[in-house]
Amino acid sequence: MKKNIVDIDRINEILKKTIDSINKGKEEIFDIAESARKECESIRIELEELKEKVSRLVKEVDVLEIEEKNSRKKLMVISKNFKLYTEEDIKKAYDNAKNLQILLMLKRQEEKDLINKRRELEIRLINAEKVLKKAEKLVTQVGVALEYLSGDLSDLSETIEDMHKKQLLGIKILKAQEEERQRVARDIHDGPAQSLANVVIKTEICEKLLDIDENKVRDELKNLKNIVRESLKDIRKIIYDLRPMSIDDLGFIPTVKRYGYNFSEETGINVEVLVIGQFKSMESIVEITLFRVIQEALNNIKKHSKAKNVQIKIETTLKNIIVVVKDDGIGFNVEKKLKETNVVEGGFGILGMRERVELLNGEFQIISSIGKGTSIIFKIPIDGKDD
To answer: For domain 2-154, which CATH number applies: 3.10.290.10, 3.60.15.10, 1.10.287.2610, 3.40.50.620?
Structure first.
């Protein structure tokens, strides 16, 4: 017994050192990600300013080309009728044409240099975004490892026999958590954060235009208002995806119907919600699980099915609630798909839906074949417990 305690202490010591090292590495990776993110934003701002410069320069070149062309025409007229002009007039016309040619050549070169610089910035932006994407992926992977290693090992001697099973389950749960966090972070970055960065750029443009063109400033301010309005809409959508508060306010069935309506508006796929039986209020965890599985099923339909119609049938019996999500899409080979799905990397797809249902002692089934659509069927006890 004493030997076991010593072994566990030693394992804990090794794990502590490992966790400290991983923590340090995670912080360094996070710093790299932050630097890459800042560089991306800086390049985007610089690109926006450069595009404005190129636009102005193109207009200047167009005007100069007309002036230079007119000066050459005038010089030709003077050359044909040089007896009608004084030596000073001839010299003045020649100098003007020459100066315009030089100025036009310089402006064209400046335009070419700016275009080359813009291309270089675009390449830099692509490379910086690649670094950012890799760093974010590493942060997620390290986060999974770190959180798993930081688990409580006080009962290791008693649970060592079940470690393999718990390890698989633990990794799947932690990966699901990290993917959910990553999804939320991505939604915020691609939505509100991107919009706010755009607001900063637009504000800087407004400041520069303030003393030049009031009408242009007014247009930019209108754009700003629209961007802020869309950002607010994105934030509300993210909050709703995290926790559909309407379940608490309206109840499960009205929330599903509203989600189906919004899904139809967004995707153009017709959604019919059919309710059979007398629906009763259930445990909150049962309602949210049912909603999440329906939500994921619709998400998969949007991504993969090419369906035109979806039916969500919700049937209540004395002890169970049965849900069928059926589409008329392209379908798929279920057996082949399940073989391709890695145990650990199931994510929020088929395995994610199955696990949610089975955690509440439910049953989950997929019926599909190529060209004949897909039906996702799941049944959960109303109280979320076995009989």
So the answer is: 1.10.287.2610
